[in-house]
């Protein structure tokens, strides 16, 4: 058995835990979305827009991992429901920015309250400050691996994950 095999075996519980977290969060996100009469993707889009106001539709779609057409449909539904508005991009007259409306801000605040209520049961109040940077680091590493894999697939036609972690 190699050092890599030992490391992989050692990280298996983390991999399983991340999978379980991902699945639990997907279910909770959909439950919260239904409460606000939104689809899961619409809820996620609201959170993305709240986190970075003024994003272009393209940037929102890229963050959500959906097509241009699907992005337009999500933004249309959020605009029709009064959660967001499109505004001209002051730096590029051809583009638009997407912003939350006051109703959208209220919904995002209510969504955050729903998460807070749910997560209070986990009793993590004394560890949030240490957990969030670690989760952010894992997220950044996983996202970088996806980008690296896409680059490798385009340039070499391969479908495997990179053998070494991405630098960054």
From TrEMBL:
Concerning InterPro entries, the annotation shows: HTH_MarR-typ, MarR/SlyA-like, WH-like_DNA-bd_sf, WH_DNA-bd_sf
UniProt name for this protein: HTH marR-type domain-containing protein
**What is this organism's lineage?**
Bacteria, Bacillati, Actinomycetota, Actinomycetes, Micrococcales
Q: Where is the HTH marR-type domain?
A: 4-147
A UniProt-annotated Pfam family: MarR_2
- The signal peptide here is none
């Amino acid at each position: 058995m190699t050092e890599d095999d030992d490391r992989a075996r050692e990280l298996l519980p983390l991999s399983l835990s991340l999978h379980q977290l991902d699945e639990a969060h997907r279910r909770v996100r959909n439950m919260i979305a239904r409460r606000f009469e939104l689809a899961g993707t619409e809820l996620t889009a609201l959170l993305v827009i709240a986190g970075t106001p003024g994003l272009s539709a393209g940037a929102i779609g890229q963050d959500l991992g959906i097509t241009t057409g699907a992005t337009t449909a999500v933004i249309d539904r959020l605009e029709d429901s009064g959660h967001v508005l499109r505004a001209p991009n002051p730096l590029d007259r051809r583009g638009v920015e997407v912003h939350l409306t006051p109703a959208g801000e209220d919904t995002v605040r209510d969504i955050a309250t729903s998460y807070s209520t749910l997560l209070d049961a986990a009793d993590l109040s004394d560890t949030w400050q240490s957990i969030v940077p670690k989760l952010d680091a894992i997220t950044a590493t996983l996202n970088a691996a996806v980008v690296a894999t896409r680059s490798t697939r385009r340039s070499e036609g391969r479908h495997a994950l990179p053998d070494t972690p991405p630098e960054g």
